[in-house]
Amino acid sequence: SMSRIDRVYEKRGKTAFIAFTVAGDPDEATSLRVAKALIDGGTDILEFGVPFSDPVADGPVIQRADERALAAGTNPDTIFRLVKAVREYSDIPIVFLTYYNIVHKRGIDRFYREAREAGVDGILVADMPVEESAGVMVAAERYGIDPIFLVTQTTSDERIDRIAKKARGYLYLVAVLGVTGVRDQVSSEALELLSRVRKHTDLPLALGFGISLPDHAKTCTEANADGVIVGSAIVSIIERNLGSPESMERELKEYVAQMKAAIHCAIRE
């Protein structure tokens, strides 16, 4: 049967909106409200960051979210519980973005089994090169979880081929060099990366890192991105509204709706 992720990309003429939030930020109960608000706003795929004490790929906004989540006692048990709660609410595809250390500590097989049981559809291990992915690939296959990989501007054509052979679901294209964070505009390099990777694979391609404005979403859609991934802008809304979950929910819903509207108005080539 078709995976939840594949169902999203089935209608290739449509660009998916992918929302990233750190699981357990600022605490378990609020994190669930965040997820529901993102879903209610029209998010197509939900990416949960598994909080980590040393998130090397992330800028200060997401680092602070990791710190808040860890301070609240978030651990893999919390996160699997959170996924189950989201699953009761929605059939939206759920993807984990994690670091290898967390998976390894839990035991690779156990982590993937529990993820499957909770209702996770895909897992991206941010600091795991494709060359070292054998153990994870076995578990991903065993439990029917899509292994998702990052591709950056410095990834060679040869490595893109290697990644494309192993990846399922979609490829996460890093739109900017450096760490996550909000940028002014979508770089021409990002759009070049999109067309370069497209020559190697039919997998859906989603652009992330630095995308925050409706205008960015429009640019990516016009360039035929299959997905746009937004993290820091969403986490900033959470951070701004820590004292008021109601306004947090309202702002998140409005933000996603605006991004979705920009995607819908844009004309794909």
Can you give a write-up of this model?
The chain is α/β, with parallel strands linked by helices and 269 residues long. It is built from 12 helices and 9 strands. It has a 9-stranded parallel sheet with strand order 5-4-3-2-1-9-8-7-6. α4 (76-89) packs parallel to α6 (108-118). It starts with a helix and ends with a helix. The model has no long low-confidence stretch (mean pLDDT 94).
Concise synopsis of the structure shown:
It is built from 12 helices and 9 strands. The protein is of the alpha/beta class. β8 (205-208), α10 and β9 (227-230) form a beta-alpha-beta unit.
The portion of residues forming beta strands comes to 5-15%
- Give the quaternary arrangement of the chains: single chain
Shape: globular
Q: Strand order of the main beta sheet, please?
A: 5-4-3-2-1-9-8-7-6
Q: What's the mean pLDDT score?
A: 94
Report the uncertain regions: none
Q: Kindly name the structural category.
A: alpha/beta
Percent of residues in helices: 40-55%
Total beta strands: 9
Helix/strand order, N-terminal first: HEHEHHEHHEHEEHEHEHEHH
Q: What radius of gyration results from the CA coordinates? A: 17 Å
Biggest sheet record: 9 strands, parallel
- For the termini, the CA-CA separation is 30 Å
The total count of helices amounts to 12
